[in-house]
Design goal:
single chain; extended; 71 residues
């Protein structure tokens, strides 16, 4: 029972769309890449600068507030 429940829950979780991806769905459909990066807040500017150095055409959308993994 436990194994079956875990399998079914995993299948449902994988197939459900993620709310953070919603604003980017059209760009993804057109073949653009979406990169979500989880970095310490103190390093955000450094990482953005690195991305801009190597991929000047990248659109950096900003940061999100800290959200606990298990609210």
């Amino acid at each position: 029972g436990t194994g079956c429940g875990a399998l079914i829950s995993t299948m449902i979780g994988v197939s459900a769309p993620h709310s953070r991806h919603k604003p980017f769905e059209d760009a993804i459909q057109y073949g653009e890449l979406l990169l979500l990066v989880d970095v310490p807040k103190a390093r955000v500017e450094e990482i953005e600068a690195l991305v801009n150095t190597h991929h000047s055409d990248a659109d950096i959308e900003g940061t999100e507030p800290t959200i606990p993994a298990f609210p």
